[in-house]
Every structure is written in structure tokens, then in C-alpha cells.
Amino acid sequence: MKFRAKIVDVGCLNHFTRVVNTVSKLTKACVLRLTCDHLYFVLSGRVATGGVSMWCELLQVNFFDEFQLEGVSADANEIFLEVAPENLSRALKTAQNAKSVKIKLTKKSCPCLTLAAELPSLSSLSRVVTHDLPVDVIPRRLWYDFREPQMPEFDVSIYLPPLKTMKSVVDRMKNLSNYLVVEANLNGKMNLKIETDLVSVTTHFKELGNPPWGEDGSQSSSRTHREPELMAETRVDIRKLQQFLTGQQVNPSRAMCNIVDGRILHLIFLHEDVSLQYFIPAVV
Amino acid sequence: MKCVIEGNGIKVFGRAIHALSRIGDEIWLDPLEDGLAVRTVNSSQSGYACFCFAPLFFQQYIPDPATKDSQAVKCKLNLKCVLPMFRCVTCRERSVDRCEISIKIPDGRVTFRFHCRHGITKTHNLGYQECEALQAVFPAHLSPNVLMAQSKLLGGIVVHFPVSQEEVTLSVSSLKVVLKTFCVEENDCIKGMNTALMLHPDELDYFQVGEDSDVTFCLKELRGLLSFAECYGLPVSCQFGAAGQPISFTVKDITLEAHVVLSTLTNPDSESSSQPAPRDDCPVKTPKASTAENSTYEEPMEAEVCVSDGERVASSQGSEMFSPARHMRKMMQLHAPEEILQRPCFAPESVLTTPVTPATFKIRSLLFGAVYNSGDGKAADFPSLVYASDTEDDGGTQETISFSSGLQHTSADLRRREVLTVITGFESGNKRFQKGVGLEPFCCSQLHLVSIGK
């Protein structure tokens, strides 16, 4: 198993750091899946984490100047590592003005991801700062748990309102209730509702637009006959949603959510070279 | 004591207080002839800091009235009370014109009076705890390794280490300087992140390596001094020796001098080679003489181990557990009969406030053990013990007694000098520093603190 990669461009480094920061805000530990073309940060839904799952996909060529991978075996040319994204984030934080950043898989007393940042310094030699991040190699038999999630059969898919607005609404609502109902319809209308014994608050968004999923046939035909005004809703833990919205470091070029009535809230954020999917299960 | 700080000086003083707050919870105010010394020590006595402000720093500086008889004031203040006063000052710089600090012995108060703009005067009266002053005796000029670097360079290096990272290891050889996190390996697996970086000697202002060494110290405590130095662009010099010997950092300016002395982890390998301390009933010795007997220490000023009655102190010398009560009795026996044994007896004027040299005075210092969880329960009551050591003139006969800080005496009679040597020994099974009352054994490291009275 071998992995070496190098980032030389400052812009790529900043972008990569932002992605890692976003992931680190969402979870303390996740799986880093490395393939020849992609990097994935995967969190599989578990009761312990409240059932949320995350899938963050990066196209390797858009970040790294050099990328060499030798997976577990010839027919499974991938590496799965359990990492703490916070460590990676911290290591990258002070390397923002580095001339180059090399990441490689090494074995110190345990498997590590070694990050070597070459920083400009006053003397002629550049300073090299090395960070060793302990990782766990995940054996092949467990890879199935971290496969790409299937697109759920959603009832409504809608573009989200501007993130800043949505975030401030959710922040305020968090003070009043633990659970938030997200409902939307195919006419571009979305409501965020909370209800307590004393008060109920609803924020209405309209003219958001619905992503044109129908063409690729990923949805069942029954959906096409859905009443445009009919709302699909899920009730989720507001803290999970807030955590997701707060962690975003960059405004995505596309932000949308898919709602499976009463089951799951599926958020999809697309950037140029990164896609982030977050699944929040419904609470009864 | 009365002193007045003006304008910019208040910011500097405030920053110094902040730097001190990174180390300890209390500060000792010590008005000396040549300036005001503000000192602190951390709870486990493994870190000491001192900011000495020269009279030039103040608009007006009046130490005690010049009567020999008068009580010299040594006061200890809780930093929690002092910090908030200077917190606002550093940000609202222009609102405060003048700050007067005065110590009133009869009232038992330290008064901080801030004269602000628009005729506002804020007066803070803090009650202080009387105690002996505190000073580390560390012969920095005898350290084999000396590095000096610009604070900006050091700041840029230290930023790579996570703020929560406590211990770092500084390794020097004649070719390079390496700073890396001190990692504890558990089950063959490193915990947390390890960071390492290398410095070339050319980057430093001064580079002297007498012996290759790896010293491990607490970075968190140093950050205060580094940020202070960075604010004012002052170079920082660093003196250290082999592992186990304290490392000291100094920042100097015309108006002030700041020192931070931190104890370092001993090399576990050296423990096996250490010799048992010499046993002596009358342990008054010159430190120089002890060098020959004490093979662990290379520097003549390092503490000699003082043992009595076959008891040995828990330390890297492989001495046994120290029993304070027993030692105190022993010390009292050394007193001249007419002396009352309750009070410490003070040595004459030989006490110096600057690092001492062997020729000028002799210290008998006592090593005492840190808390052992495997030892007897009594030891757990005294996480660290302060002992008076005696100083002797060539012909002097005065000796001092030791007392434990648990019995800290609050006598107002501070006419006579005293010298206290505080030596903290740590023993470790897992080779880590522990802050506060450690109930686990520590790796042995030594920090000498000398308490002086006037």
C-alpha cells in the first residue's frame, strides 16, 4: 500500500484546506477513501452519530500536482483510512503559504499520514514542518460499509435558499425547539417550521426552483404525477442541520435538498470540484 | 513601595501580567533596590517566570523607605484579581494616563490606582498574602547550550504546534535544531498529532552548542513570554544543558528583563546510572565540592543532594522517599540553642538576587520528593515542599531551618534574611509532566527556586 500526493498551487491548497475544515466541523472521525481519481471523506450513518451520514467527493486532479496510489491489491486499487479530520485541518492551517505540501502514507510506530509542508523562511533553506497524523487502515472486508450512498427515492427536490439566510433562520429556531420540520413542494416553495407548546414559527421561502431530475430517470414514475402544491416534509434534529450549515466554508455553486416524506433529508452541495452530500434521518 | 507607570508602560506591564498568567495563578511583587520584580511559579513548581522592571521603566519608583528596621514587604497576589485590571488597558490603550501601584504594609493592601481620561480615577485595593519572595537560582551563564533568536522567528515556529500541545522536545546538535512534539506512545500507537520542524543555525542570532542534547519542556508556559517578546520585537535567548536540567528563556531590554525557567524531563536512561546521594549528617557543603560526589549533575551549581539519617529523597539520584517531618527535626537540631525554632533564621547579607556563582555563596539545598502514589499516604499531603536552606559566609555559623509550605508561616517578622531553596523532584513511570498536585510518579527534573527576604 502506497500513497503519495503533492499540492503545489496555493489556490488548490486553500481550497483543499477549506474542504477539510468543512468536514472537520461535521464529524470527529471519518473514513478517507483514496482511489486513483478521487478522494472521498465518508461518514456512514450510525446510531452513535445520530444516524447522519456524509459523502464528500473530491476530484483528485483538481487539487494535487502529483498523486500516486497503490491500493491494497491490484483488483482493489483503493485505500480506506480512518482519520480525524480535525488533525488534518490543524496541520494544514499553518501551511497556507507553503511552497508545497506533500502528503504520504507512512508507518511510524503505527500507520500515519505524514504531511510535510515546505514553508518559505528567512534563510535560504526553506523550513520543512512535518506533521504525523495517526490513522487506521480499514481492512477490505469492512469496505462495504463505506460504499457510495444511493440516491434515495425522494418525493421533492428543491434548491435551497441562500445559505446565509437559511443559516440565520435555523440559528434562531434552534433557541426555541430541538426539532425542525423541513417541507417543500415542486412549485419552489419551502417552509421551515418549529412548534412548541408556547409558540410555533414558520419561515416561508418561495420561488426557489426545483432541480430537473426527471430527465435522467432516477426517480420512479409515480413522482411525475405528484401534485405540485403537495408538500413533502421531514422532521429532523435541528442541531444536525445547524451543524451542517455552520460548517460550510465556501458558498456552493449549487445547493439543494431532497426530501423523502417522513424519512430522510438529503442535502447536496456542489462546488466545482467537490461534492458534499449529507443525510439527516427523520425523527418521529 | 510606590511606583508610577505612565502611558505605554501600562500596556507593557499589562502584557507582562498576561504572560505571567500563562504560568501561574499568583504573582509575587518584590520591590528591590534595582527595580520591581514580579514573579510567578506554576502549581507543580516546574515553571517559574520573573519580570524585573528597572527604575527607568517607571515614571517614579520608590521602593521601601530606607530604614533598615522596617518590614520589607513581600506580597503575593492572586492573578485572578490582577488580570482584569489590565485586560481592558491593553485594548483601550488611550484611556489610561497613569497607573500608580503602592503597597501599604499597615493596611495589608496593594493599591492599583488608574488615572484615566476625563478625570476618572479607578482605584483597586487588593489584600495581599504575606509570604517569602521567590526566585529561581539558575546559573544561566553556565549552560553549555545557548541559542538566541528573534521573537518573530520563534513565534512563527511555535504557531505550528497546536495550542493544546503541552510538551515539546528541543534537540540540538552542532548542525541543526529540531523542535518536535513530545509524544507518548501507547500500545505502539502515537496519540494525537506529531509535529516536527527543523531550524538551521544560520537562522539564529546566536548559536552555541556545547553538548548535543534533547530537552523536553512545556511549551504552553513559554507562549506567554514569546507573545510578549513578539509584541515588542525583542530577541529571546535560551539557555539549557542536558535533559533534566532546567531550560531558561530570557528577554532583555533597557527597562526590563524577563526570565522564564522551566524544568525539563530527564532522560530515563540516566536514572540507572545515577549514584546515590552522599549521606551526611551535617550536609552543609559548597556546591562545588558536591560535584565530584554527585555524578548526575555536571554543573557545579546544581543542587547537591542533602540527606540525613539514611533517608534519601525520591529523585533521579535514586534516593529514597523524603519525609518532611523527620527532616525538619533534623534541621532544628542544627540550630544554635538560643534560636527559637519556629521561625526561620536568616542568613546574613550574602543572598544575591542574581544567579549565584559557586564562589560567592554556598547553598545547602534539599531535595525532596514529589508525591508518590505508591509511597506512604502522608507524602500525598505535600505536593511540593519549600525548604529553607542555609547560606553560610566563610565564617558564618548561622543556619536555617526548613519548613514545609503546608505550614507556611505568616509571621510578620521579616527582618531577617532567609534563603529558601525549592527543589522540585519529579519521578515518572510514564515520563510525563503533571501539573498541579501530581499523584503519579514523574520523571525527575529539577528546578531551583530560591526565596529571598530582605
Structural description of this entry:
The complex is a heterodimer of chains A (284) and B (454). Chain A is α+β, with helices and mostly antiparallel strands and 284 residues long. Chain A is built from five helices and 18 strands. Chain A has helices at 10-26, 85-93, 163-174, 221-224, 238-247; strands spanning 2-7, 30-34, 38-43, 53-59, 66-70, 79-83, 100-107, 111-119, 127-134, 136-137, 156-159, 179-184, 190-195, 200-205, 232-237, 254-260, 264-270, 274-281. Chain A has a nine-stranded antiparallel β-sheet with strand order 10-6-2-3-4-18-17-16-11. In chain A, a hairpin with a 3-residue loop joins strand 2 (30-34) and strand 3 (38-43). Chain B has 454 residues and is of the alpha+beta class. Chain B is built from seven helices and 27 strands. The relative contact order of chain B is 0.14. Residues 270-446 of chain B have low confidence and may be disordered. The interface between A and B is medium-sized, with 20 and 21 residues. Chain A: It holds the Pfam family Hus1. Chain A: Keywords: Cytoplasm, DNA damage, Nucleus. Chain A: It is found in: Cytoplasm, Cytosol; Nucleus. Chain A: One of its GO terms (biological process) is double-strand break repair via homologous recombination.
